[in-house]
Design brief:
The chain has 333 residues and is of the alpha+beta class. The protein has two domains: 2-59 and 162-330, Zn peptidases (Aminopeptidase, 3-Layer(aba) Sandwich); 61-148, Elongation Factor Tu (Ef-tu), domain 3 (Beta Barrel), CATH 2.40.30. Helix content is 26%, strand content 26%. The chain has nine helices and 17 strands. The strands form three sheets. It has an eight-stranded mixed beta sheet with strand order 1-2-12-3-13-16-14-15, sandwiched between helices.
């Protein structure tokens, strides 16, 4: 199932492919609504607290901004992508699965100053093999979306794939929705997180949660030279966020999550960084606000064609969130 999720081509604002795949997996789990933003919400009816679990469907990608006379395709990035990783990467256009490669002026034609600097995005283009604007326009139009082309590979203890931020969260949320609870549970597969968590705010406004947990695939830089730059570490368990640019974890909920992990001997770590943000920020501010926290699976090389996670991390993340939900059900929170 995770392979199906990561293989789907769905940059922010173009989530139809992944939404259709997820819908096919959750259609028997509860009442389903797809709103005007493209969020997919599953409601498992109960009573008492309204609990929202959110994971975003979208991935970073590209949008066509112009087509040159010689058939080269100029693009903008959708979401935060480091231009340094783009040269020679393969991309796939969402509407027709057309392959292309991101190109740049050959190194033989670059002067010394150009060679010594990262190549700016404005100098890059997508090459589909077209030799004229007219030929390119047979396949690609302005506003078309593309995503990284990448193969899902099971490496034993780890998994390598594109879009694990946040298809791993969607995978875990799908697993969580199989269980029944006494409270009202809303599973929100949200849209457009990578461009400002736009879908999450709309979903939370509709759901009006008392408690919300965002599931993420978060930065793991444990190959950095200095441990202070790690943020999270692969294999050390789910990463619990204390604070980021958009939200702070609700103290009462945070304490319960930590106690649950420790009482059940589930390894966990704190996300050691406050940059970035996710759906929890928008959810926490919807209507009158609600208690929120983010629990993430450490993920190397996010926002690139090749991200990597440890199997035991997402297994422990699933175990922890299941127990947290059971504690909410017992009234221990």
């Amino acid at each position: 199932m995770l392979k199906e999720y990561t293989d789907a081509l769905s940059p922010s604002g173009c989530e139809g492919n992944i939404r259709d795949v997820i819908k096919s997996k959750v259609q028997n789990f509860g009442d389903i609504v797809v709103d005007s933003m493209g969020n997919l919400m599953v409601h498992k009816k109960g009573s008492g607290k309204r609990v929202m679990i959110a994971a975003h469907m979208d991935e970073v990608g590209f949008i066509v901004t112009s087509i040159c006379k010689d058939g080269r395709i100029k693009f903008g990035t959708v979401g935060g992508i480091d231009p340094r990783i783009l040269v020679s990467k393969r991309v796939v256009f969402v509407k027709n699965n057309l392959l292309g490669v991101i190109g740049v002026k050959p190194i033989h034609l670059q002067d010394r100053e150009e060679r010594g600097k990262p190549i700016p995005k404005k100098d890059l283009f997508i090459d589909i093999g077209a030799t004229s604007k007219e030929e390119a326009e047979k396949y690609v139009k302005l506003g078309d979306f593309a995503a990284f082309e990448s193969e899902y590979i099971d490496l034993g203890e780890t998994i390598k794939a594109k879009a694990l931020d946040d298809r791993i969260g969607c995978f875990l949320l799908t697993k969580l929705l199989k269980d029944d609870y006494d409270f009202d549970l809303y599973g929100a597969f949200t849209a457009q997180e990578e461009v400002g968590s736009r879908g999450a705010g709309v979903a939370a406004y509709r759901i009006k949660p008392d408690v919300a947990i965002a599931i993420e695939g978060t930065t793991c830089a444990d190959i950095a030279k200095d441990e202070k730059d790690f943020v999270t570490t692969l294999g050390d368990g789910p990463a619990i966020s204390l604070m980021d640019r958009t939200s702070s974890a609700s103290g009462k909920l945070l304490k319960m999550i930590i106690n649950t992990a420790e009482e059940n001997k589930i390894p966990y770590q704190f996300r050691r960084g406050i940059v970035g943000g996710n759906d929890a920020g928008r959810i926490s501010r919807a209507r009158e606000g609600c208690l929120t926290c983010t629990i993430s699976v450490p993920t190397r090389y996010i926002h690139s064609p090749i991200s990597m996670i440890k199997k035991k991390d997402f297994e422990n993340t699933l175990k922890l969130i299941k127990l947290v939900l059971k504690n909410i059900e017992k009234g221990e929170f």
